[in-house]
Amino acid sequence: MLRIRRSRAARPAHWASGWLALSSIMIADVARAADPAAAPPPPTPPQQALVLQPIVGLQETYTDNAALTTTDKVSDLITRVMLSLQATLDTGRAEGHLNANAGYDVYARDTYLSGWYAAGNGDASYALVPGLLTLKAGASTSDGTISTFGVSATDRHGAPNLVQQTTYDVGPELTGRTPDGLDVKAAARFAQVIYSNVSSRPLSVPRDDSIGQLTEVISTDASRRLQLENSGEYLHDTQDFMSVSDVQSAFIRVGEFRLIGRVGYDDINQSTVLHISAPLGSVGFEYQPNSTSTITVETGSRYNRPAWAAKATVELSPRLLATATYVEEVEPDQVGVARSYFTFTDAARDLPPLLVPTSFGVSPNVANTTSFSRSASLRGVYHDETNSLAVTADWIDREYLTIPGGDRTLLVDANFTRQMRPDLTLVLRADYAHTLDSAFYGPSQTAGGSVQLAYRLNSRTDVTCSYARVQNRQFVPGGERVTENALTLTLRRTL
């Protein structure tokens, strides 16, 4: 049972102590009157609890291939009227952040491609019992392609192969310590992953999913030489997928290392097509080369297969940071999207600020099946007074368990920013996606890049000019090759 410890109320002081306190106050008042410099500073104005920052904008885009066709390309001019809202809430018990964008794209020639555009993400929390029980929620929506092929050079409504992916989660989280020193953390989450067709063509979109999750972690003091931990998870979704796991872990500190040992059990069911009931076990180590870096590697057995897991956050220098993960899971693709979103919302708590991703996009090659998924992710950031470089790489290898086939995809992107002057910024971006094998979408390759100049006219107005190019190619008999070039001019004003 968790208890909140409260300090005892102070007992009434003796009457002589009261006189001494009153005399001290009077003497201090006299001293302040004699010395104006000793007077207390004026009170700090209260911080505004809710801050709203609306932004309006107008964007003109020229594309040489509006419908992303291999031949008979048709150019078009796209006008976007847009509204953005950045909001921050902080009342002490309630906290929240919102970054939302909406607009309407008007095509001058192919008017049937015109339509609404929306993207954004936000999170909020409310302390039901401060320091013990918190209600948390998060949401994200964005559009993108459901495969790595058919990507547009610009983010616009009406492009082929385009879906809107919306995901959110909400639930309570309990964090506390028992009187005997056990740290307890438990959470319940309800999440949904929703897809809608915003393409100019008929499109078979992935199936929506609703997910319920319960988690708990109970551990002894992490500062001790020996730490014990119990962690469990229950997960169920509307595709009749159910997963239950319970893991006992031990951590033993040996010099700069912590040795790790785990034993547990997984039980996974999905209707009549899948059943896995297997013990798990692993050994590994955790190493901290410095106060801001941690490297964890484990190997063993899970799902009746050899298993590996790794996680690292490394500060190579004050200007160079990197994070990497490797995870193996049995899950439907939509559950994988939800888990990725959980990781995205927790990143601000788990990672240094420079490594925290700022947006959550559409996951490629999502299929309506359960798979054994191996995923590796790497993100590195360099920054100095005028330059910053961020490189991200993801490898996703899915072995379908309920149908034949699988999917293997590599995603890489790099973003370089240079502050050329206080009011002028240069941004260079490169993207590469390669699906080596996919039972649903086939092998393909996409490469693109962009150059952007942003100029600040004044404290409220920005002008941005950019050029982008993308090349798409399918590696199947009769596969298509699609290219697009686009020029964009954007004017934004903060209200």
Please describe the topology of this protein:
Blueprint: H1 15-34, E1 50-63, E2 76-90, E3 94-107, E4 115-129, E5 133-145, E6 162-177, E7 183-197, E8 209-219, E9 226-237, E10 241-254, E11 257-270, E12 274-287, E13 294-302, E14 305-317, E15 320-332, H2 333-350, E16 370-383, E17 387-400, E18 406-421, E19 424-438, E20 444-456, E21 461-474, E22 481-494
Antiparallel strand pairs: 1-2, 1-22, 2-3, 3-4, 4-5, 5-6, 6-7, 7-8, 8-9, 9-10, 10-11, 11-12, 12-13, 13-14, 14-15, 15-16, 16-17, 17-18, 18-19, 19-20, 20-21, 21-22
Number of separate domains: 1
Terminal Cα separation, in Å?
51 Å
Please indicate the percent range of residues in DSSP E strands (runs of 2 or more).
over 45%
| CATH class category | Mainly Beta
Number of strands: 22
Count of runs of 4 or more consecutive helical residues: 2
Flag low-confidence runs.
Answer: 1-39
Category from helices, strands and their pairing: mainly beta
Helix fraction, binned, reads under 10%
Question: The CATH topology, please?
Answer: Maltoporin, Chain A
Q: What is the succession of H and E elements?
A: HEEEEEEEEEEEEEEEHEEEEEEE
Give the overall shape, derived from the CA principal axes: globular
User: What integer value in Å does the Rg equal?
Assistant: 27 Å
> Quick check: average pLDDT?
87
Q: Strand count, sense and closure of the main sheet? A: 22 strands, antiparallel, barrel
What is the annotated CATH architecture? Beta Barrel
